[in-house]
Description:
The complex is a heterodimer of chains A (453) and B (230). Chain A has helices at 10-78, 149-199, 215-261, 266-294, 307-325, 343-360, 416-426, and strands at 84-89, 95-98, 120-124, 127-136, 140-147, 303-306, 328-333, 338-341, 366-374, 377-384, 430-432, 441-447. Chain A is α+β, with helices and mostly antiparallel strands and 453 residues long. Chain A is rod-shaped. In chain B, helix 1 packs across helix 5 (109-124) and helix 2 runs parallel beside helix 3. In chain B, 44% of the residues are buried. Chain B is of the alpha/beta class. The two termini of chain B are 28 Å apart. In chain B, the strands form four sheets. Chain B has a five-stranded parallel beta sheet, sandwiched between helices. A four-stranded antiparallel beta sheet of chain B has the order 8-9-10-11, with helices on one face. Helices cover 41% and strands 23% of the residues of chain B. Chain B is elongated. Chain A binds chain B through residues 242, 245-246, 248-250, 252-257, 260, 266, 270, 273, 276-278, 280-281, 284, 287-288, 291, 301, 313-314, 316-318, 320-321, 324, 342-345, 347-348, 351, 355, 358, and chain B through 13, 15-16, 19, 57, 84-89, 92, 104-110, 159, 185-193, 195, 198-199, 202, 220.
Amino acid sequence: MSSARPIAARATLRLAALMALAVTLLSLAAMALQYRLVETRLMQAQQTLLTADLNGLAALYDQRRIIALRQAIDYRATAATGDEMLLLMDRTGAALAGTRPDWPRTLAPKGDTFTSDNATIFTEGATRWLAVARELPGGFPLLVARSLQPVDDTLAALKRGMLALLAALLVAGALVGGLAARLVMTRINRINMLADRVADGALDARLPGPRSDDEFGLLETHVHAMLDRIENLNRATHRLSDTIAHELRTPLNRMLQKLSKIEGQSDLAADLKAEMRQAIRMFDSLLDISRAEADQGTGGGLVPVDLSATASEVWDLYDPLLEDKGLIAQARITPGLTILGDRNLIAQVLSNLLDNAIKYCAAGDHLTLDLTPQDDRILMRVADTGPGLPDALKPEAFDRFTRAERDRATPGHGLGLALVRAIAARHGARLTLPPTDKGFALEIRWPRLQQSD
Amino acid sequence: MSHMDRILIIEDDPETAAAIRAEAEALGCATDHRDTLPSGIEAATSAQYQVIVLDRMLPGGDGVDAMARIRAGGSTALILILSALGRAANRVEGLEKGADDYLPKPFEPEELRARLRALLRRGTIQVLDNDLMAFGDLEIRLKARTVHFRRAHVPISPREFDLLTYFARNAGQVVTRMQLLENVWNLHFDPGTNVVDVHVGRLRRKLEDAGATAIQTARGEGYIFAPLPA
C-alpha cells in the first residue's frame, strides 16, 4: 500500500502502441494505393495529350508531309507553354522547327509511325519528359514530348500531405495511448490497492463510491462479490468454532456435573476430571490456533500491550516452578517495550514455552528469557540447555500434533508450538529456531509499536 | 440477613440449569429460571436479583449483548456469565462488556459455588477502603503493602502480597485456582500446570514460618483463607 508501485500500465501502453501501429500501417497502405492510382491517372492524362499531339501531326503529314509538319511545329513553338517539347530535324541533323535547337543526347529515334506506342521517359535537367522519338521516311527525326512536371508536382504535394497525415496519426496514437494507459492505470490501481489491503488482512475493505457502468465497474463488482464471499466464509469459520465449542462443551458439562455426584471413588473422579480438563485444554488450543490463523493480519482486537510487563508477569508466575525444578533460570527483560497485541495470547505463548522448558529440561539446565529491542522489532528469545529438538523434527516442529518419539512418556498433545506459531503470526511476528550448540532456542521478533507521543 | 438472596438463571440447557440451581440453593438462595434471552431480560428487569447467571448462546441472542439492556432496565444484579465460549478472548470480551465474572463451560460445581459465593458476598459486603485488614494477630496494611504477624514483619514478595489480599478479601470462602489466576495474575487461560499451587505453597510456608496458619487446602476445590483466632 505505502510502497509506490513503479509499474506503469505497460500492458495498456503495449496495446495502445500496437493499435496505433496497426492504424498507421493500414493508413499507409490506403495512401499508397491512392498514390498509385493518382499517378496512373495523371500519366494516362499525359499519354492522352501526347497521343492527341501525334494524331494532329500525323494528319498534317498525311496531307503535305514535312512542310506541313514544319509549319505546324513552328506555329506551336511560338505559343509554347513549356509543357511540351517538339523538334523536327533534317537529314543533316539541323533543326527545321521546334521548341529546342538540338536533339536530346539520351534519346534515340525509334520507328517511323505517328502512334504513341513505346513512348519513353527521359530526364533533362530536373524535368522528366514522356517522349516519342521517330525518324520519318527520308531521314527526318521527329521528337514529340510532354513534360511530366505537373504530374511530379502533384505527386510530391500528395506525398507531403500523406507524410503530414502519418505524423499526425502517430502523435494522436501516442496521445490516446498514453491517456488510455493513465486512465486504465487509475482504475486498475484502485483495485490493486484494495487487493493489497485485503492481503494485509482487512477483509472488510471495499472501494468507496458508486460503480461505473463499464468493464472496470464490472470488475469492481466482481471483486467485491468475491470479497463478500471470503468474508462470509471467514465469519462462518468463526461461527463454526463457536458452535463446535458450544455443542461439545454442553455434553462435557453434563458429564462433569454427573461426575461430581459420584461418591466413594473420589480418586477416580478426580482423575477423570483431570483428564477432562486436559481434553478441554487441547480443544481450546485447537480453537485458539484456528482463530488466530483466521484473524492473522487483521488488526482487529489488538491493543497496545506492554510486552515487557507481560513477559515479566508470566516469568514471575513460572519462576517458583523453574526454581523447584532446579533450573538455572534468568530473565533479561528491557522494560517499556510495547506492541499491538492481545495480552492473554502473548501470555499463552510464554506460558507454553516455559512449560515446555520445565517439562523437558533436567535439574541444572540453564533457561534464559531475553527481551530486547532490535531495529523496528522486539526480539524475544527463549533458550534452554535441555535436550532440544531432534533435527528430524525441526521442519514440522510447529505443526499440530507433532511430538518427538522419545517424548511419548511426557504428557502433552503437541499443540504448544503450533499455538505459539499461530499467535506469533496473528501479531505479525517472525518466528525462528536459531541453531544452538545445545538445547532448544526460539526467537520471536514482534513488530514494535511506534509511539507517536 | 432478613431476606433470601435471589439468583436468576438464564440458561437453555435444562441439566445445566438444574446444576446451577442446586449450587445456588446449597448457598441458601432462591432461584428463578428462564430459558430464552427475551424472557430472561424481562425477568431481570422486573424483579430484584443479587446475581444473574447468564448463558451466551441462547435462543434469542447472545447474553453478553443483553447485559447492557439488563443494566439499562434498572437491574443492579451482579452478572456471572456461564458459557461454552470459554477461550481467553471470549472471557476478556465478556468481562470488558461488563460481566462481573465469567466461568467457562464445562465447569466444576465447586468452581461455580466459589464464584457465586464471592459474588453474593460482593453484593452485600461494605466496601473496606481503610488501610488495615486484621485477622486476629495477622495484619495486612494495604497502603504500605506489608504483612505483620504478632507485630513481627513477614517478608513476602509483591505478587504474594496481591495473593494474600485476594485471599483476605474472600476470607472464609473457598477460592479456586482459576479465580486466583484470573484475579491475581489477570490471566484468562488454563496454563495446564499447577503454577498457582507453587505460589500459594510459598505464601503459606512464609506465613507458617511466622506462626500464622491462615491458608488451608480445600481438597479438590481450591484454598480457604481462614486465620484461626489466636
